[in-house]
From TrEMBL:
Residues 135-388 form the Chorismate-utilising enzyme C-terminal domain. InterPro entries: ADC_synth_comp_1 (IPR005802), ADC_synthase (IPR005801), Anth_synth_I-like (IPR019999), Chorismate_C (IPR015890). GO terms for biological process: folic acid-containing compound biosynthetic process; L-tryptophan biosynthetic process. Pfam families: Chorismate_bind. This is Aminodeoxychorismate synthase, component I. One of its GO terms (molecular function) is 4-amino-4-deoxychorismate synthase activity. Coiled coil: none annotated. NCBIfam families: pabB (TIGR00553), PRK07508.1 (NF005698).
Length: 400
């Protein structure tokens, strides 16, 4: 899907400067290219829960007119889609619940020619300050463990923001960071006042020819300093009972989510506990696929799947309740999803981890998190969270 070589009708973009006006750049590292969506014919936005249904209807109508859709869904959209949360207070992020542009044919975009940072490219380091110290984190962690021991949940994905400053071009920052850590499902969304920079290694779901695929990522290990140590850490990750349990819980959750949208008997697990290696860490993944029922709409897909279970915990709805009550700020685009919808029905969305939000005043927000299960340890989980920010910086300031 979205094969770069098949895009016709527009000249490739010269990325020596940032695009003018609203745009989205989305990259699929598996196919070796990126697409630029610019000059939107329409921008579709939902800030409130009661605006979501109309936004999805406008997206369906735009797709029916032969337009591409590109943009993001914020994590808090999940509360707006779940009947249990409606009627009560919903977390309000600084970013919209949904923000998509409707575009004509995209153009090829070559990152190797993109505008560079003024200094420090590609070894950019942005100092980040975590919102929580280890003591702050431990209090929430202990509360999560109590919910687990009480039988409310099996797993809770506990996250928190880190804050920094950046006032340059979002495309330049993305270019610099992707040199440090190549990305499978990344990009930049610049459709509103904020800029979203996502370097996610995790696909949420993709749809091609009526088949939907998901690849949850759960289980992390630090890279080793020498090859033998590095290989040993990857091997230990495949055998680690805690990581396997975390991963399997989310596989089961997503199998259940997909079953509500798919033909009976078509859901299957393609592989389990596969380790993927990135410059700063190893991650455990698994694959699931199914045949979609005829007539499933965009609203159906998001109502059935969003947010991804790998960023909530299990069971999903109870985990989302606990997250809402324990975390110190709404997640916004982090743990939501960036993606594309083609006129022919092909769809691809990432899980918006390793995702930065850049605000007009220069504030940068980078969130991190990890899965808490019964045998988790607070210090180890906190350190895992900070490891996940290494793609951006080696400088973290926090009193622990």
């Amino acid at each position: 899907m979205f094969h770069i070589a098949e895009i016709r009708g527009r000249e490739p973009y010269d990325p020596s400067r940032a695009p003018d006006g609203p745009f989205v750049v989305f990259e699929d590292g598996r196919e070796g290219g990126a697409l630029l969506f610019d000059a939107p014919e329409e921008i579709i936005v939902a800030h409130e829960a009661d605006e979501v249904a109309e936004a999805f209807a406008r997206m369906e109508a735009a797709s029916g007119r032969g337009l591409y859709l590109a943009g993001y869904a914020g994590y808090e959209l999940g509360y707006a889609l779940e009947r249990k949360f409606l009627g009560g207070p919903l977390p309000r992020a600084r970013t919209p619940l949904l923000l998509f542009g409707a575009f004509r044919t995209p153009r090829q975009y070559e990152w190797r020619n993109a505008a560079s940072l003024a200094a420090g490219d590609p070894s950019i380091d942005i100092a980040l300050t975590p919102a929580w110290t280890l003591a702050d984190y431990t209090r929430r962690f202990d509360a999560c463990r109590e919910f687990i021991y009480a039988g409310d949940v099996y797993q809770i994905n506990l996250t928190f923001p880190l804050y920094g400053r950046y006032e340059g071009e979002a495309t330049a920052l993305y270019r610099a960071l992707r040199k440090r850590q190549p990305v499978a499902y990344g990009g930049v969304v610049a459709l509103g006042e904020e800029r979203i920079v996502s370097l996610s290694p995790e696909v949420f779901f993709d749809v091609c020819d009526g088949v939907i695929r998901a690849r949850p990522m759960k289980g992390t290990a630090r890279r080793g300093y020498v090859p033998n140590e590095d290989m040993a850490r990857a091997a230990l990750l495949t055998q680690d009972e805690k990581s396997r349990a975390e991963n399997l819980m989310i596989v089961d959750l997503l199998r259940n989510d997909l079953s509500r949208l798919s033909e009976v008997g078509s859901v299957r697990v393609t592989d389990l506990f596969t380790v993927e290696t990135y410059p700063t860490l190893h991650q455990m993944t698994s694959g699931i696929e199914a045949k979609l029922r005829p007539g499933v709409t965009l609203a159906d897909l998001f109502a059935g799947l969003f947010p991804c279970g790998s960023v909530t915990g299990a069971p999903k709805i109870r985990a989302m309740e606990i997250i809402r009550d324990l975390e110190c700020a709404p997640r916004g685009v982090y743990c939501g999803s960036l993606g594309l919808i083609a006129p022919d029905g092909a769809i691809r969305f990432n899980v918006a981890i390793r995702t930065l939000t850049l605000f007009p005043d220069g504030e940068l927000v980078c969130n991190v998190g990890s899965a808490v299960v019964a045998d988790s340890r607070a210090r180890e989980e906190y350190e895992e969270c900070l490891i996940k920010a290494k793609f951006l910086t080696g400088a973290l300031t926090s009193s622990v």
